[in-house]
Design a protein that fits this description.
Largest sheet: 8 strands, mixed
CATH superfamily of the largest domain: Gcn5-related N-acetyltransferase (GNAT)
Structural class: alpha+beta
Low-confidence stretches: none
CATH topology of the largest domain: Aminopeptidase
Helix content: 10-25%
Number of helices: 6
Length: 286
């Protein structure tokens, strides 16, 4: 029965033309009930990433989008060697087409295509609603829940040497420029003592910190006092306990915990929270 139902669908590579992204924008906006997925946003994400274009497939039913699965390339290094990585995002199945295996079909087609293109590994950030499908249906591996740190200041120390044997997702200058041109947000960079941050303001009282690094100059600009939120997994930052210096939000206070997961495509990398550095600039939520 499942196979006969799937015969009513066609599976096509993602159409990133103007008309294709317009249709996709309407589909994702309706599926997620969100204004985030504008054609400009999808064009920025799928067509202008300097690391490479989107890899993925759509399911089509009666000439309309029924489901969507997408991966975008990431710059990555593991034990100081470059690897080819991807990020899973915008996975969606229309409400009238759920329960027909489209998620699994599209995902597996995308993995085959990704392996043919020489990619080694794919990452994802899943919530409670999606993590089961990735792990149980697609054999993804679980790393850990992302930490959410809150502070009035910034980490006191950045220990670069701890990243030597970790998987990291460093951004080149061109990729940083692209990442910070996301049309949905306004970002800024600022030195705070010996630390540089990339951030965007959530509101007048709070900011989201996407990336923390060592400052490359001694220039210290005035940083408006706000509550800082940082999301990720890292062993290179030293947060002192206490509200002023930083603390992790308890699990029961998090509105929807996020989980970091991965799937090896043509590699055999074994990851856990002790050998990966991952923060908000590496995924699409902020």
């Amino acid at each position: 029965m499942q196979e006969s139902l799937n015969n009513n669908y066609s599976f096509e590579a993602i159409d990133t033309s103007v008309s294709g992204l317009k249709a996709l924008s309407e589909f994702l906006s309706d599926t997620f009930k969100s204004s985030k997925f504008t054609p400009d946003y999808l064009d920025w994400m799928y067509n202008h990433n300097p690391v490479g274009g989107v890899v993925g497939f759509n399911a089509i039913f009666e000439n309309k989008l029924a489901a969507h699965y997408a991966l975008i390339p990431l710059e990555a290094r593991y034990k100081n060697e470059k690897i080819k990585a991807l990020l899973s995002l915008n996975t969606a199945t229309g409400s009238m087409h759920q329960g027909r295996g489209l998620f699994t079909i599209l995902a597996n087609k995308t993995y085959v295509k990704s392996k043919d293109l020489g990619f080694d590994i794919v990452f994802g950030v899943a919530n409670a609603n999606s993590i089961y499908g990735f792990i149980k249906k697609l054999d993804w591996n679980y790393i850990d829940q992302l930490d959410t740190c809150v502070s009035l200041t910034l980490p006191k120390k950045i220990e670069i040497e701890k990243l030597r044997h970790c998987l990291t997702l460093p951004l080149s200058d061109s990729t940083t420029k692209w990442r910070l041109s996301n049309p949905n947000y306004k970002y800024y960079k600022c030195n705070f003592g010996k630390i540089n941050i990339v951030a965007n303001d959530i509101n007048y009282f709070a900011r989201s910190i996407l990336k923390i690094s060592q400052a490359t100059s001694d220039d210290t600009k005035f940083l408006m006092p706000k509550i800082n939120f940082w999301v990720g997994i890292s062993n290179s930052y030293s947060w002192k306990k206490g509200f002023r210096s930083g603390f992790k939000i308890p699990e029961f206070l998090k509105p929807s915990p996020l989980h970091l997961i991965y799937k090896n495509l043509s590699s055999e990398i074994d990851l856990n929270r002790r050998n990966i550095h991952f923060e908000a600039i590496n995924f699409d939520a902020f």
